[in-house]
């Protein structure tokens, strides 16, 4: 991509902040799913835990990508 120096730096900083907020969001959702799993006994708890774990993993990969590759 052909950004000017200031535009590229601003883009990278914004990408890192968005990635950090998404990681925090996914961790909060994971905590809520864990609490819900203790309160509500259901067959779909395992799949919700899996989706929550996948979301946290994707958020971590996105953060690493935005720090090192962009």
Question: Could you explain the architecture of this structure?
Answer:
With 70 residues, the chain is mainly alpha-helical. It contains two helices and no strands. Helix 1 (5-39) runs antiparallel to helix 2 (45-68). It is elongated and about 55 Å long.
- The total number of structural domains is 1
Strand content: under 5%
Number of strands: 0
Shape: elongated
Separation of the first and last Cα atoms: 10 Å
What structural class do you assign from the helix and strand content? mainly alpha
Share of residues in helices: over 70%
Average pLDDT metric: 89
Low-confidence stretches: none
Q: Output the number of helix runs.
A: 2
Task: Please compute the radius of gyration using only Cα atoms.
Answer: 16 Å
Element-level helix/strand string = HH
Can you summarize the main beta sheet? none
Pfam families: DUF5657
Transmembrane segments: 6-28, 48-69
Keywords: Membrane, Transmembrane, Transmembrane helix
Helix and strand topology:
Blueprint: H1 5-39, H2 45-68
Short description:
The protein is an all-alpha fold and 70 residues long. The longest helix has 35 residues.
């Amino acid at each position: 991509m052909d950004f000017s120096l200031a535009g590229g730096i601003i883009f990278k900083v914004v990408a890192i902040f968005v990635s950090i907020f998404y990681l925090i969001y996914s961790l909060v959702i994971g905590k809520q799913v864990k609490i819900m799993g203790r309160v509500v006994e259901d067959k779909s708890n395992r799949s919700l835990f899996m989706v929550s774990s996948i979301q946290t993993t994707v958020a971590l990969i996105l953060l690493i990508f935005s720090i090192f590759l962009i």
